[in-house]
Amino acid sequence: MSPLVLLDYASVLIFALTGALVASRAQLDVVGFAFLACLTAVGGGTTRDLLLDRHPVFWIAQPTYLAIACAAALLVFFTAHRLESRAKAILWLDAAALSVAVAAGSSIAKDEGAAWGVVLVMGVMTGCLGGLMRDVVANEVPLLLKQGEPYATCALCGALALLVAGWLGLPPFSAALVCAGVTFALRASALAFGWGIPVYKSRPPRA
Amino acid sequence: MSPLVLLDYASVLIFALTGALVASRAQLDVVGFAFLACLTAVGGGTTRDLLLDRHPVFWIAQPTYLAIACAAALLVFFTAHRLESRAKAILWLDAAALSVAVAAGSSIAKDEGAAWGVVLVMGVMTGCLGGLMRDVVANEVPLLLKQGEPYATCALCGALALLVAGWLGLPPFSAALVCAGVTFALRASALAFGWGIPVYKSRPPRA
Amino acid sequence: MSPLVLLDYASVLIFALTGALVASRAQLDVVGFAFLACLTAVGGGTTRDLLLDRHPVFWIAQPTYLAIACAAALLVFFTAHRLESRAKAILWLDAAALSVAVAAGSSIAKDEGAAWGVVLVMGVMTGCLGGLMRDVVANEVPLLLKQGEPYATCALCGALALLVAGWLGLPPFSAALVCAGVTFALRASALAFGWGIPVYKSRPPRA
């Protein structure tokens, strides 16, 4: 088993936890928890596999992924009431899942020999799509679209770091760790210190 | 023609009717009816085919499916005003479509030799995704996410029934019928008697 | 390079502009602009390629597309405040992008030897899906679903025109131009003169 596979496992687990927490805010039943957990957990990676024509899709080849997502859903179903703030837990778990998923997505695209622009896009997409699907389906404002809060930007910087690490000669798994580290550091700083980045502000049209 | 293909035809027809009924609530024009009918009708099955790498996708191989969905859209366009309650018609037709689509999705995944976990997921997904796309695009609250109303749960029980029927030695088409029957019986009971299942209720955090 | 490829380039550029303009209404940061621009630009064509099993997907084979979309996002990020009405600019650019994308989608499906029903659907889908994804993700009312405003209808007429042009013996690129012309003429007339088409109106149930 390639060590890169570990990244897919970790991102599936953490994304599934965020999906189940969002399900708990929508007060679904236990199968609803599992559905949203699985969708969030495998959404980004599935899109990546379809786009790169990697078959069978990772969770069809290895259904353990789904078992992990369902276990995470069950865990949250029985313990979420113990959390002081589910909104906060979602934000921080999502940051962790984002980081790992960006690393998984961009590493695999690089492994398949994709052009560097495609590596960046696959990284950002694998990272962002699972959470985006979760939020669109559950009718929450996507984290991706919160004003002035860097999200896709963190993912992009992480994917860039992976490319730079690769150019510097780091082996794939170390490069993936660098990528996850950079993404998480940026996103966590944004959450902890309220770091923002310049956003578009419309100015009045000239007279 | 395999008898399993009949399930695809039936689910396309019934899902197209629900899509067109939702279009009538959004007061679209006739092409809008056809668009939403086709999206709902083939959405779940298309995702299944892409994930299982079955090409050509069923409605590209056999465009009759689209003709059926468009005919259903036309029928609804000219007759929906005769219904006493479109909301009720949507609920019941959706229950029927869900049942048939779960049977179609899980049978085909089983036929392709997928692991049992994947058969369950494909069944639930083929059943739920068409309606989910319809509701997300038309900006309605997804049936899947209505609190305390079993939806994905019915689909899951149906797919489980298919597996059990297979283990008991039933031929594929009979197993598919058992699956559709179980799904519909559960969903219909939920609609008719207001059956609910335990949902997640947040309790106040401990002091 | 086949001249049909030019259509893909043009539709990517124009759709990216609309995606970035929608991002400016949501006041995202510059990476958010790029994300929404890329999603809108390649959403329809990617779905077309996945459904027709054309690999590598067009923007993976040729990452220039993403560069174009990102350049468009940057351009809008720095100049959108100069527009008098962004809503109007989105509507008209979307009309242009729709026309070109319908031509690209239906030409390529025809080129692959798809049945005429599939050519129509691929044309409408390639045209409508990018904008639909943009609007669903950005939480705007999809242009596709505005009451009484023809949208999918224009796309369908354009795709029909392509088929007719092909039957009359026109070469593929000319047929594509006819298709884009018809689609744009219809959509522009609808926008300029407020042309509507008959929509579904519910009548009271009979007593």
TrEMBL record, chains A, B, C:
Keywords, sorted A to Z: Cell membrane, Membrane, Transmembrane, Transmembrane helix
Transmembrane regions: 6-23, 30-51, 57-78, 115-137, 149-169, 175-197
A GO CC term attached to the entry: plasma membrane
Residue ranges annotated for the Glycine transporter domain, each copy included: 6-80, 91-164
Source organism: Alloyangia mangrovi
PANTHER family named among the record's database cross-references: INNER MEMBRANE PROTEIN, UPF0126 INNER MEMBRANE PROTEIN YADS-RELATED
Entry similarity comment: Belongs to the UPF0126 family.
Membrane topology: Multi-pass membrane protein
Name assigned to this protein: Trimeric intracellular cation channel family protein
Subcellular location: Cell membrane
